[in-house]
Design a protein that fits this description.
About 35% of the residues lie in helices and about 15% in strands. It is α/β, with parallel strands linked by helices and about 280 residues long. It has 2 domains: about 160 residues, 3-Layer(aba) Sandwich (Rossmann fold); about 80 residues, no CATH class. It has an 8-stranded mixed beta sheet with strand order 3-2-1-4-5-7-6-8, with helices on both faces. Helix 3 packs across helix 6 and helix 4 crosses helix 6. It is globular.
């Protein structure tokens, strides 16, 4: 069953997931060192072994709770009883920004997820309250639909190992000749939105590491000169997508942006895509 990720994330690959899934080569172990919303995992077919990793402990803690039947039931009940309300959002948001976060793992995860689903682009500390629009967009209904879908998400995660490691440790731990790494690192210049700064030097370090792995690799990022240099010896593909972080006004469509995929292998389905080699 192909699913939509329950998590909103800046830079998430919701619009690219179908395209990316067609590019996946044969492999045994599938690993996302920067899983974020995990859009590709939730939209692709099962792999024999699957790893979701992220340095964000709140995100990984949320996924861990979903994998526990008893805790998941309590979490869903808690979320379902939280009204979609600006006043509640402001109260939780203020406490979250001030570091007044509950030590109870169920309540902490509920706060985190509530802010993720009620804040524009899922940015708990910087985004504004996601309000309905006259175009028919109803974030309140989307919030409860997401809660209703958590049981399906939990079932999909049943055979997935979740990790909270530094990306380099994750790559080194799971590298093998039958591993597929899908890497979607933070966008250049906006690492602060992800809660953990990711500098140009970090992007260079990542590229150096990926050039040494035994497995096959897929890397996504927006079009930029640094990545063209770092992955100049790899295959490159482009895809025109919608800019998910843009808040479209009435009678306005989301602007489009060019996303790029670099691979250290030649995809079998190459002819279906805009290749730039």
């Amino acid at each position: 069953m192909l699913l939509k990720s329950p998590v909103n994330r800046i830079g998430g690959k919701y619009y690219l997931a179908g395209w990316l899934s067609e590019m996946i080569p044969s492999h045994v172990l599938y690993c996302e060192p920067f899983c974020g919303a995990g859009h590709l995992l939730f939209s692709k077919e099962f792999s024999p072994v699957e790893i979701l990793n992220d340095i964000d402990s709140h995100l990984i803690g949320f996924f861990e709770l979903l994998k526990d039947d008893t805790k998941r039931s309590k979490l869903i009940q808690t979320l379902d009883n939280m009204p979609y309300s600006r006043r509640l959002w402001q109260d939780i948001r203020m406490n979250w920004k001030q570091g007044n976060i509950s030590q109870d793992e169920i309540e902490r995860a509920a706060w985190w997820y509530y802010l993720n689903r009620t804040t524009f682009s899922g940015d708990q500390k910087r985004g504004g309250f996601a309000i309905p629009s006259t175009t028919g967009r109803n974030p309140a209904q989307s919030y409860y639909n997401a809660i209703d879908g958590l049981e399906h998400i939990a079932k999909r995660l049943r055979g997935v190992t979740v990790e909270c490691l530094n990306y380099a440790n994750c790559i080194q731990r799971y590298d093998s000749e039958t591993t597929l790494f899908y890497c979607d690192p933070p966008y250049l210049g906006v690492g602060h939105y992800y809660g953990n700064a990711f500098t140009p030097d970090d992007h260079r370090t990542l590229a150096n590491l990926l050039h040494e792995v035994k497995g096959v690799v897929m890397v996504t990022h927006y079009q930029n000169a640094l990545y063209d240099d770092l992955y100049q010896d790899w295959h490159k593909f482009t895809y025109e997508s919608f800019k998910g972080s843009h808040k479209a006004g009435e009678n306005e469509k989301k602007p489009k942006t060019v996303e790029c995929l670099w691979t250290n292998f030649k995809p079998v389905t190459q002819g279906l895509f805009d290749a730039m080699e």
